[in-house]
């Protein structure tokens, strides 16, 4: 056996950002899609470990109805656990799907919020049970209320690159929704490739359309899924387009629709590996992030789909 | 369940090649690393199906010593099988590690050849049992003999981005070896990320160094491994650097050092998906390539590690 490989060597690419924010979504977007229930204490530990690894933002949970997502029924207890641990709750946004969710989140003491809308009509109807623009207006109202309460609000747009019912999505359709979230007061808009069909040229086209609609580049994030293996190539296209925030899920957890090792979410570890090689600073310790991810995938009872983890820490 | 997703929508990126060559290595580089033996007839069928899918070059086998790689001990029978099927053997290079391999390949009637060298000293000693430059000179002699016999010869360089013993590899070290292969008569030089540690900026740096050493860009190929999940991002960097030939292995076969679904080789299917989205022509039918790959991974008794296959044809 050859000696263990360390980190990749650094090769800067002119024009790339010097530093980016890795926005960790595993505890919310990851765990909401996993069948195995994770105890509240383990969730709090996961979030603390990710924070300790240097991740600047670790989304904590969702105040969606427990009838819809029982995995996150303990949202108030997770927030309470983070508060007890003395963490800065502004670094741990919680998703709020509607006014009722916002009420519960504020009551629990959440320090930052996230709302979501769909770029497409069909997904809005099926997932949110509203017309697309009706859902945008509802999210705008939640955002405004949250902002009035002094909470920073992040906006998510789903189905940005394609919709399984509607097919390809026009970048202009994404841009108008992203702009509406910004106008309502979101500090950042995360563009989600919910079904993973984006490719690098498509990423550039969408970012350009959203920027042209008046959303500043530095307030954009990309939330890329690896369903077709394209997530890191798409991150690279996003970096070349000047995006400075990327969502990822430690251990690639969440969204395993088919095989045990198929991923939906981009694994934080694989993203960090590429950024390290590109000489783009993140402030995150890859090894510590890997350990936090392994603790979770072990709880979930399956190997990590992260290629980096598979290579460095076969499990 | 939503309806099945088709191909990604096309978004051209200015400056990318209009068309690239996907050089299929599964039958050689893939099968040489697989533990399960594959019958000769199945190899010939695999190669024929890949050719029928539109892949312009399908490397067939290796005339390495059967003591070293028993999986490919049937190299003469594979070549005979392709000849019997009336295929153009110039489209099916065979690897020849040395003079003895060249003798056997010529005797078997091979129509095109491939040689390989190492960019690093340690790997040359461990894998080829020679000094690095001694190995380069040996490959040059094999190339010259092959060319005299009227066979086109492809050159492979291993350990281009990193070596598990030596760490990062200087791009200049790669460039001198690549240039030596070109000078000996290789029509193309394939730069191999044998351990998968390359990242996109590194790819650009290596391509630029090799081109600066006098190897024309259009005679370069990239052979990228997905060990750390970077292969497609690296392909994208290669496209941006003007590379027009990419090696890939159908079903991602070969190089599964750790987990059953971890890949070494980039899966042809995932590469084709990205190229389709980028509007880069390949002439390959993705669905037919997927079927050929599934036939092989079924024989090997494991799921395909290709994300595209996992998403479209859960197996």
SSE order of chain A, as H and E?
EHHEEHEHEHHEEEHEHEHEHHH
Distance between the termini of chain A: 17 Å
The main β sheet of chain A shows up as: 9 strands, parallel
Q: Judging by the overall fold, what is the CATH architecture of chain A? A: Alpha-Beta Barrel
pLDDT < 50 runs, ≥5 residues of chain A: 256-262
- Strands side by side in the biggest sheet of chain A: 2-1-11-10-9-6-5-4-3
β-sheet strand percentage of chain A:
5-15%
- Give the averaged pLDDT of chain A, no decimals: 93
Largest interface: A-B, 57 and 58 residues
CATH topology of chain A: TIM Barrel
Structural class of chain A: alpha/beta
Rg of chain A, Cα atoms, Å? 18 Å
Question: Which percent bin holds the helix content of chain A?
Answer: 40-55%
Count up the helices of chain A.
12
The CATH H-level homologous superfamily of chain A: Aldolase class I
The count of strands of chain A amounts to 11
- This entry's quaternary arrangement is homodimer
How many domains would you count in the coordinates of chain A? Answer: 1
Q: What is the 3D shape of chain A?
A: globular
CATH class placement of chain A: Alpha Beta
